[in-house]
Design brief:
This protein is of the alpha+beta class. The protein has one domain. The chain has 1 helix and 2 strands. A two-stranded antiparallel ribbon has the order 1-2. The termini are far apart.
């Protein structure tokens, strides 16, 4: 369980999911999901657009 997760990285910037830190409140897409994830990957570095494309096209 990830009980104390306070932020996530999207692209090359950090987006805080805590609505109190955002100037205009929370983002609906950044809230919890109603479902489960069966596959995901964690990388030490941000992937380039080409690397992401290759992952989804099966070339990597």
């Amino acid at each position: 369980k990830f009980a104390d997760v306070t932020g996530m990285v999207l692209g090359n910037f950090a987006f805080e999911t805590d609505p109190t830190l955002a100037s205009h409140g929370g983002e609906d897409w950044a809230r919890g999901i109603n479902g489960s994830l069966d596959q995901f990957r964690i990388y030490k570095v941000a992937l380039s657009a080409a690397e992401i494309t290759n992952l989804f096209t099966g070339k990597l």
